Amino acid sequence: xxxxxxxxxxALVMMLSLVLAGCGGSQAPAAKTEGxxxxxxxAASTNAKTDVKVGFIYVGPANDGxxxxxxDEGRKYLEEKLGVKTLYRENVPEGPECEKAITDLIDQGCNxxxxxxxxxMDPTEKVAKQYPNVKFFHCSGNKMAENMSNYFGKINEPRYxxxxxxxxxxxxxxIGYVAAYETPEVISGINAFTLGVQxxxxxxxxxxxxxxxxxxxxxxxxxxxxxxxxxxxxxxxHNDSPAPQIAAEQRGVWAIGYDIYNPQAAPKAYMTAPVxxxxxxxxxxxxxxxxxxxxxxxxxxxxKDGVVDLGxxxxxxxxxxxxxxxxxxSKMLDGSFNVFSGPIKDQSGAxxxxxxxxxxxxxxxxxxxxxxxxxxxxxxK
Amino acid sequence: MIFRIVKRAELSxxxxxxxxxxxxxxxxxxxxxxxxxxxRNPVDVYLSMLKGAFGSSYRFREIxxxxxxxxxxxxxxxxxxxxxxxxxxxxxxxxMGAFAASLFALHFRDMQKPLMLLIMAAAGIIxxxxxxxxxxxxxxxxxxxxxxxxxxxxxxALKWVTYLQYGPWKDPASFxxxxxxxxxxxxxxxxxxxxHIGWIITLILIAAVYVFINRTxxxxxxxxxxxxxxxxxxxxxxxxxxxxxxIFISGGICGLTGMIQASAVNNTLAVEVTGGVGFTxxxxxxxxxxxxxxxxxxxxxxxxxxxxxxxxxSAFQIPQAAAQIIQGTILFFxxxxxxxxxxxxxxxxxxxxxxxxEGA
Lengths: 381, 360
Description:
The complex is a heterodimer.
Chain A: H1 3-24, H2 34-37, H3 43-46, E1 53-57, H4 67-82, E2 85-89, H5 96-107, E3 112-115, H6 121-130, E4 135-139, E5 148-153, H7 156-169, E6 174-179, H8 184-200, E7 205-210, H9 217-229, E8 234-238, H10 243-250, E9 254-256, E10 270-272, E11 274-276, H11 279-291, E12 298-301, E13 308-310, H12 321-333, E14 344-345, E15 351-353, H13 361-365, E16 374-375
Parallel strand pairs in A: 1-2, 1-3, 3-4, 4-5, 5-12, 6-7, 6-8, 7-16, 8-9, 9-10
Antiparallel strand pairs in A: 11-13, 14-15
Helix pairs in contact in A: 4-11, 5-6, 7-8, 7-12, 9-10
Chain B: E1 3-7, H1 13-37, H2 42-54, H3 57-82, H4 90-107, H5 113-142, H6 146-166, E2 191-192, E3 195-196, H7 198-215, H8 217-227, H9 229-234, H10 239-266, H11 277-287, H12 292-315, H13 320-342, E4 343-347, H14 352-359
Antiparallel strand pairs in B: 1-4, 2-3
Helix pairs in contact in B: 1-2, 1-13, 2-12, 3-7, 3-10, 3-11, 3-12, 4-5, 4-6, 4-10, 4-11, 5-6, 5-10, 7-8, 8-10, 11-12, 12-13
């Protein structure tokens, strides 16, 4: 290559970058707005209070159509309500990468961190020890420290309600359930759902298909198809992508979503979904940090708090389901209904919870057995 | 347009540097178009990538932590490549090294720290070496294709570790979540100047591999076999034995990476233990021209590219995939330039011999 060519290339690059710099300037990249973003917040509440920058770690893409998106909507809500600056990191694997992702965000100025997947628990705890001045929130786990809260929602309540919808819809009396890992969170969700199903349709079975991932559309679809091939005509899920809902629609059957309310994912199949609304909790917590009144806690949001809910029933949902759901929901709201109140039998038919008794929250958080009506195995103990 | 590809005879250093520089410039221009399409200012993004890679001592440390497994694995691969033994199996060798090290870390939790770490390192090296020996044996004995063989061995190793993590080694205290129990503190490599001791091991290995390849008889024999097996045979070398030894060393070094990553970074065995380094290191070994010191520089720059890419993701809130496209574009051009250093295009009406002289 001759010198002439090189010099003309260099000239071209310089010209291009000048042009691009000129055009791009108006786009105001995020880094530049750093100083101004806090100005949006009401001046009175931020005056002389702790300045916060909030970082989020997601296990999937921020727009995964499920779990991570629910958290990202919470993040946007937080930005909008408090005017604080937020950063996020998506597709972070559950392992040492998570530690690095957290410390990266701290390095970029974050002093409040939300980690939003079960497998982020140990890395979060480890980093929390190294950064005592940063406040941490871990979702769906059970560890706590002076600067680390854990939080989750009582999603089992809306799951039970969605079970009512599924139980009324199924004609085959077989409902497929695409599930991530054999953890108490997932197992208790399957149980709550099954109890809901059986409250309206004692003959219906719930067939569990494990994916061993939180988010992998391909694996979720495979598991959904396996359930459909066994004759299931309603699918529910404890996975993050809408793939099972789409698989159900392609077969002309029905689905219950999860995490966010998104009927557009599969309009002909979508009946409803148990959903999370993290925004108000995020605002409350970050506000407490700004005011200097924050303390680490273990929080389990309820339907009453608005953290969890059942999305509206679509026109695909069975007739009469709305009334049934509303009736149970009002009892849940006034505290007179517990999903896990006896009598409850396990898969072998043995009574696990006697009539008149109920499982405590703690029992549910360590649940490692299936109720009667679930077809599936907890392989690992 | 009709052209042919002709191998270059010899290229002056100056020209080679010019080609590489042009590649980087072109890469930045191509990526700039993409960044611009995302609605960002490319100059800002590039500056921020630099800031993200070198802007603080924390970021610099992170680069080193990323560069450690990359460098060590590249060194291991380079020894095999020098012999034209295409060891694509580093990923599996890292897994097996991590597995063997974990075997001791998990079962002798109370062993004294220095002893424990030495045993773990030895186990990692031996396991990685033995894992590599399997395809080497078949190559030496039956002339099987080592590229496919080593590649397939990766998946066996990956599934083996997956099996352990989801099955027999699953931590009963993790409530069903597939995770191997963490090592005790005795099995975790200590830190020196805020970075785990792997960086010292890396520096020692760079020197050792350099001397081994360039100053020892074995290293010379490896290079001769790489040039021509028949020549080696004619010179009276025991080709089979040299192949097996060299591949054991190559796999052993990769196995050591596994031990270091499991101990210092993961603090346990996990399917994420390799972080894909076994494959990335093929690129860095190749870009490093199989020379130990250059491999170190390339690995360091590569780690900086990764760190910078991660930084712009959160700084500009661009999707992870987009940040990776930028990284990939830069890499594509840099790798592509190596082709133009080795070969050149001859157009139809040009006489190849005439211009060849010019190039020399």
